[in-house]
Design brief:
By secondary structure, this protein is mainly beta. It is built from 1 helix and 11 strands. The strands form 2 sheets. Strands 2, 4, 5, 6, 9, 10 and 11 form a 7-stranded mixed sheet that branches. A hairpin with a 6-residue loop joins strand 7 and strand 8. It is globular. The mean pLDDT is about 95.
Length: about 120
């Protein structure tokens, strides 16, 4: 089992910055790829960013590439999503997720956090 706990959401102005954190726990949590998905009201859930379990590879949705950065210090530390120059269309509930592979994380992660609301004002 992997438990995920997000923090850092809130209200931010467009063009500002915000950092989300995801703390993972569980005996095997270090061996899972981690990432972020989001869901806006009335829209389907979509992939945002992911980092491989070894930390050597990162992946981004085209809509956030160049603005958001996913990172971590080591396998046991939180995974971060640094959001720079957010736009109102980035407003959504952001979920931390974990999966045994990147493709699974993109489409159907095994583990989810509770989610944290991010609201970007114009």
């Amino acid at each position: 089992q992997v438990q995920l706990l997000e923090s850092g959401g809130g209200l931010v102005q467009a063009g500002g910055s915000l950092r989300l954190s995801c703390a993972a726990s569980g005996r095997t949590s270090s061996y899972y790829a981690k990432g972020w998905l989001r869901q806006a009201p009335g829209k389907e859930r979509e992939f945002v960013a992911a980092i491989s379990w070894g930390g050597g590879a990162t992946y981004y949705a085209d809509s956030v590439k160049g603005r958001f950065t996913i990172s971590r210090d080591n396998a046991k530390n939180p995974v971060y999503l640094q959001m720079k120059s957010p736009k109102p269309e980035d407003t959504a509930v952001y979920y931390c997720a974990a999966a045994q592979g990147i493709e699974t994380l993109r489409t159907g992660p095994e583990y989810w956090g509770q989610g944290t609301q991010v609201t970007v004002s114009a």
